[in-house]
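User: Teach me something about this protein's shape.
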Amino acid sequence: MLPKELIRFKEQGRHITILTAWDSLSSAIVEAAGADVVLVGDSLAMFVHGHSTTLPVTLQQMLHHTQAVGRGFSSSKQKQPLVVCDLPFLSYQCGEDKAVEAAGSLLKESCAAAVKIEGAEPEVIMVIERLIRMGIPVMGHLGLTPQSVHNLGYQKQAETELEQEKLISQALQLEKVGCFALVLEHIPSTVASSLSQILKIPVIGIGAGDQCDGQVRVTADLLGLTDKQPPFAKPLIHTRELCIKALKEWVNHKNSRSKTPTTPTSGQVSDY
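Assistant: First, the predicted structure itself:
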């Protein structure tokens, strides 16, 4: 699937579904579930690598995970979900050339067909324009941007009229420079709904209400694999608890079985 097909989905009124994957096992599951897009999100820094934020994950690690995601697909190339990879912290904030090299390596060495970039500051806009001119499709991301955690925290964004006006202006700018879709995270649903009507590109919500053109969720949250989830991603199944219970039963069963000692007792001589 080409990134621009998501715009056609919006024009047809078709809801867009995006789920994250981080290895071949998760991508096989997400593909089988029928998601339109697989996002290799930098959130894997937290639930895969154990970091407290997304900031520590490197470009090389994102490439490694995206390559693994590609190996999990079983359908033909034409029928596989669109793969979008997050550009990690400091891979695009340090200038256009570095950003092109980073994004280009993901598209060249993995199954990714597009990248996602957070923010719409003037420097970021320049980077996005350059990437698109170089033939690299870009998905935008506004609202709660996790790479700015030390400035924003994890609380809801764009709650004042001034902040909402700024966000709408930034969204229009991202569309103007050529983003093929826009993620809106943890903002008032009224703002997200309005932008879905205003923008020609699809608006993908996460914690932004149900009136967006599509939704994105962290698969580990929906499956209940993490020990806690954000308020806008309640688990569909408590997989973590089920796994612990099943494995604990296996461990207890093995520990309860009587077994003849294999260590030679005093006075015995080993044959080896």
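Now, about its shape. The CA atoms of residues 45 and 54 lie 5 Å apart. The first helix runs from residue 5 to 12. If you'd like, I can walk through any region in more detail.
User: That's plenty for now, thanks!
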